[in-house]
Amino acid sequence: MEHKLSFKDYNEALKQNKLLGLRCKQCSAITVPPKIACAGCASADLDIVELSGKGSIQTFTTVFVPPEGRESEMPYIIVLVELDEGPWLMGNLVGVDPNKITMEIIGKRVTMGHAVFPGDKYSAGEEARPVFSLEA
Amino acid sequence: MRKVAVVGVGMTKFSGKQDKTCVELFAEAAMDAINEANLKPKDIQALFLGNVLGDFSEGQGQPQAFAADYIGAFNIPANKYEGACASASAAVRDAFMWVASGFCDIVLAGGTETAAKMGTPLATRTFAMGSDSRYEYPAGITFPAVFAMLTHLYAKKYDVPLEKLKHQMALVSVNSHYYGARNPKAHFQKEITVDDVLSSFMVCQPLQLYDCCPFSDGGSAVVLACEEKARKLTDKPVYVAGVGQASAGNLMSQKDYLPRLRPRELSAEQAYRMAGLTPRDIDVIELHDCFSIATLIALECLGFFEYGKSGEAVEKGETKIGGKIAVNPSGGLKAKGHPIGATGTAQVYEIVKQLRGECGDRQVEGAKIGMTDTLGGDAGTIVNLILKRGW
User: Fold this and answer.
1) Contact criterion met (CB below 8 Å) for B74 and B110
2) Who has the most CB within 10 Å: B121, B123, B222, B279?
């Protein structure tokens, strides 16, 4: 069976700051990042939709002990954002001091950009990820 | 299905970097388990081995084949189980089913890992492979980061001030080290204080070093036998009364439940139902305390305390030996150590020893029913086992 939205196509769009997801034709649930079946009802009857990339921070952490190869990025903030369309998306948060961030950040509105992880010897090549900033 | 019993257990001391390979570590534990069961390697009909990172730590793929041969169980079918940190528990569950089905009478299950050998940067990188490589790793996710985010979610959802929660979490680590100090097989055999936890360095905000389990090397093994054989081999068979297992996708896909981990609730429910038991029947549990917050989340998902309330239970001493539920008398992953592929069978080892009354200073007096809880990845694999005295 063909993928409606493959990792490759999702990744290429993300690199243009476009967040693509899938809308289920059966139950209307939004699936992002993409899967071959709806995150809600497991139907494979899906349409590609462009999502706003806007939402609110649900949780966060600042990483001080990085994995091999990510040393130059630290300390960095990881967030889980609830998109306005419903799903949660993992990404980084920039524009906030990683040494000073507190739980006050939870609930704050953010908007999405991106950055590219160039890949390492273990990964399958470059992969973009959402990078969020506080809404102006 | 036939009744299945644990008839022998073995584990190496868990530790920092070892000179031994993962096959050697497993073999030490396996021979102890086989000897304890009054069996010979030739009696073993199959091997199910948990191992996650042998290829990265030693360049060793399919260690299960070499392990079977190394212990003298020549040419038996040998399978590797990889379910991140829950690997060995998944191995035990399937070994149980092979024996229960009548396909085999005696099966060896176990696990082994040389995680400490890799050092922190590579171990952090390879552990993160248990997360979603496309949609989580690019953001720099690590395992402490997953549980750090769950900590903030927990504080927010249950309206527990972070400072109070951190104190409760520190008590979890203090308890683990208290029992670890009484377990000669533990990686860390020293007690710590709340101040030690709260003054240790920050790993992933808000998790500090002593909120986190170590990278460890070690091996563990258990022999499972059908009831008929078990009765001939030992006068203290420990029956597998219930098993459960469930899976989940990446962390974001679990948003409807977090910080609850739905696969754990489903897995525990299966195990309780199969055993015909409830959380109130459990005397002792070895649960997956990879991070201090993980203990609080596990205690709630497993039904021991209400959601958001397990921290208070820890404060009241309800998770200590003599409390409502004795939690991690081995020292848990935090103090006993966490050689990830070996952790599940090491939990079974402790429960079996507890039910037999062989745990000395850390004995849960009169324990008759015990449980294990093992979590892999961002809850990608969760396994629960309920074990019961057979005498």
Assistant:
1) no
2) B222
Instruction: Please write down the HEC assignment for all residues of A63-129.
Output: ECCCCCCCHHHCCEEEEEEEECCCCEEEEEEECCCCCCCCHHHCCCEEEEEEEEECCCCCCCCCEEE
Strand order of the β-sheet with A46-51 is A30-31, A19-24, A46-51
Q: Torsion angle, CA of B37/B40/B42/B46, rounded to 10 degrees?
A: 30
Chain A CB contacts of B140 under 8 Å are 63, 66-67, 70, 73-74, 76, 78, 92, 117
Give the distance from CA B50 to its chain's centroid.
Answer: 11
Q: What is the pLDDT of residues A54-74, one digit of tens each?
A: 999 999 999 999 999 999 999
Q: Position B243: which residue type?
A: V
What is the average pLDDT value for chain B, to the nearest integer? Answer: 98
Nearest to A18 by CA among A52, A45, A56: A52
Whether B38 and chain A come into contact, CB under 8 Å, resolves to no
CB B187 within 8 A of CB B15: yes
For B235, other C-beta atoms within 10 Å of its C-beta total: 8
Q: CB of B293 within 8 Å of any CB in chain A?
A: no
User: Residue B176: which residues within 8 A CB-CB, separation 6 or more?
Assistant: B289, B328, B331, B332, B334, B335, B336
Q: CB–CB of B140 and A66 under 8 A? A: yes
